[in-house]
Amino acid sequence: MTNKVKDILSKEYFSRSDIISLLSVDDDAERNLIFQKAAEVREKHIGNNIYLRGLIEYTNICSKNCLYCGIRAGNKKVNRYCLNEEEVLTCAKYAYDQNYGSVVIQSGERRGQQFIESIDKLIKEIKKLSNGELGITLSCGEQSEETYQRWFESGAHRYLLRIESSNEELYYRIHPKDENHDFNKRLLALKHLKSAGYQVGSGVMVGLPFQSDENLADDLLFLQKIDVDMVGMGPYIEHPETPLFDLRNKIPDPKARFEKTLLMIAIIRIMMKNINIAASTAMDTLDNEGRIKAILAGANVLMPNITPIKYRENYQIYKDKPVLTEADELVGKLEASPLLKDYHIVYNAWGDSPHFGKRNS
Ligand code: SAH
Ligand code: SF4
């Protein structure tokens, strides 16, 4: 098998069956060959930099009912909140003072006019308080083309919208099948984000019930085909107050989900070379050094949570999401980690996806 892995890794492009073979590798030496290759590709194409985005979990109010998510509208146990403008700007100021370079505003999916205007105002105010220096990424779900354009014009320039699963059948196993959770609308939203001018990020959850290596290979090919600029992938983690929790015996164990996510990160790094890849917070739920390992596998973006601590327990999209880690503590841990001695955290930079620059030149 080692030779087979080596052969695949020496190819310019991976076929579907190549990716499936790589995803099924479980021998440590062979896995290390994949991680090594990903590290080489990363160093050659984008260097060993890590970029920071302060993550602001703006509101847990959501109109959707994704079957896996702890803050789905149907979960009546959640205390709903929405940060006020001052709270958001205090977070943004913190990111600015810490020289993070960028912030991410993430939220449940809301579409009312008031929500659209609030986000718009926040974008403008964050730009103002940072003299235009803070980069702004949004992750506020599916919106109309017009809304995406408006927010872009106001100063947001990156957007994260995971496809969750690129397989339509699996998509409907993890979402209600109704017009509020329409697979084709999600695809269309990704198109609109691109045409509005954003650097677009997408990704999937890894280790979902019914998900096969074939599905995951197709997910990677999908991300390549739609030519994303950024990828955010994380392990699926069951939440007891969701319908998908009933299928918790049908998913791989936490270690297997974690390891598979690392492979997914490494393979997409090799396939797409100069994109930005986030080390997702969910990695830390499954492994103490989860995000560090994600960086070693090919990720180059870290999103320390800067949401005021008192709100964080209400933004539990999955079980055991870390709520107490302070952003500066996390960054300090990375700065001090011997595992990351060959990497360096870049401050005061947007850390845009080089892929985007090339795509548009
Ligand atoms: N409402 C927006 C953004 C917030 S949710 C949206 O859905 O796009 C951000 C991400 O959290 C989702 O894209 C999903 O991939 C992830 N997520 C939700 N529930 C999860 C779970 N149980 N385990 C792991 N990730 C989850
Ligand atoms: Fe809402 Fe996003 Fe959770 Fe779906 S994943 S329920 S859209 S917050």
Mean pLDDT: 97
Q: Report the portion of residues in β strands.
A: 5-15%
Approximate helicity band: 40-55%
CATH topology: TIM Barrel
| CATH architecture term | Alpha-Beta Barrel
Small molecules bound in the structure, each named once? S-adenosyl-L-homocysteine, iron/sulfur cluster
Described by strand count, sense and barrel closure, the largest sheet is: 11 strands, parallel
**What's the CATH first level?**
Alpha Beta
What's the order of the H and E elements? HHHEEHEHEHEHHEEHEHEHHEHHEH
Distance between the termini: 40 Å
Radius of gyration: 19 Å
Q: Got a strand count? A: 11
Poorly predicted runs of 5 or more residues: none
Number of alpha- plus pi-helical segments: 15
What is the count of distinct domains? 1
Query: For this structure, what is the CATH homologous superfamily?
Result: Aldolase class I
- Based on Cα principal axes, name the global outline: globular
Q: Structural class given helices, strands, pairing?
A: alpha/beta
Can you describe this structure?
With 361 residues, the protein is an alpha/beta fold. It has a single domain (47-210, 223-254, 272-359), classed as TIM Barrel (Alpha-Beta Barrel). It is built from 15 helices and eleven strands. Strands 1, 2, 3, 4, 5, 6, 7, 8, 9, 10 and 11 form an eleven-stranded parallel β-sheet that branches. α1 (2-9) runs parallel beside α3 (28-45) and α4 runs parallel beside α5. It starts with a helix and ends with a helix. The structure holds S-adenosyl-L-homocysteine (SAH) and iron/sulfur cluster (SF4). Residues 62, 64, 66, 69, 71-72, 108-109, 141, 317 line the site of iron/sulfur cluster (SF4).
